[in-house]
Write a structure and sequence with these properties.
Order of helices and strands: HHHHHHHEEEEEEEEEE
Number of helices: 7
Structural class: alpha+beta
Distance between the termini: 30 Å
Oligomer: single chain
Strand order of the largest sheet: 1-2-3-5-6-8-9-10
Amino acid sequence: MVTFSVTGQQITEYNKKGDEALARANYSDAKMWYEEGVVNCDLYSINKITEIWMQKPEMRISMRSLVTKCYDCLTTKSAENDTLAIRNLIYYHKEGIGVPQNKTLASYWTQRLSYLAKDTDLTGLYDQAVLKKEKQSTFFIGYSYSIEAPFGISVGSLGKKWGWYARMKSNLSFANSDAENNNQGFVSPVQELYSFDKDKINCHIGTAGVIYKWSDLIHTSLGVGYGMRDLLWHYNIYKDDQKSSEGWSKNIEASHKGVVAEFDFIWSFGKTFVSTGLHTVNFKYVDLNAGIGVYF
């Protein structure tokens, strides 16, 4: 909590009454007395009102207009390079007191306070801080997973509202097939006896898309690309009751390739994020997505 020094400053009657009420934990009376000081932009009164705001969340609804007056006073005094007001204004922006949290303005006033301490020219400082923030984009990289393509990577960049990403996923299986079958058996007639005993999947997907930032916590992404998902069945051919050959056959009813579309929810926590969603291959097969990554 930011505090003000009142050394050499005579405490006014309303502040004395407010302090007495505060000592009795009578926050309503204290607020009433300090409000007189806020009308005069008294920094001591403003500081005490801020303390009550932070310590008594249940009183905030009734204090909103008062805290807005405090913010207006701090803004006016800060523009006059009052360093005590600037310190508290930084706190208001960081904590979202009376106004939404604004890291850009908190950074600007922090830098301005530093410049004042060095007696540096402040011309253009605000524009520089805001432009720097607006131009910022955050690069990210992450691990991407889906049930049938568990090895993946996502890269991209996220700006103030919009971003982009590119993603590759695979199960690293590249098995070849030498026959085709459907769910009933081989497509081409086979005279010998045969059986299917196991299966494997080749799955490879590449996508790219856009990200929309709903808030600092929640984003969504939408992407398109190309992919393939082949289901292979292992077959055994028998002759005279003995296995004569074996191989892999592609199940054409369960194999798909073509356009991939995907949608994900992304939750950001500081420098890390997690995501969940789904994708479809040629709008015939659907698989679930998940991911985790870091921002730089």
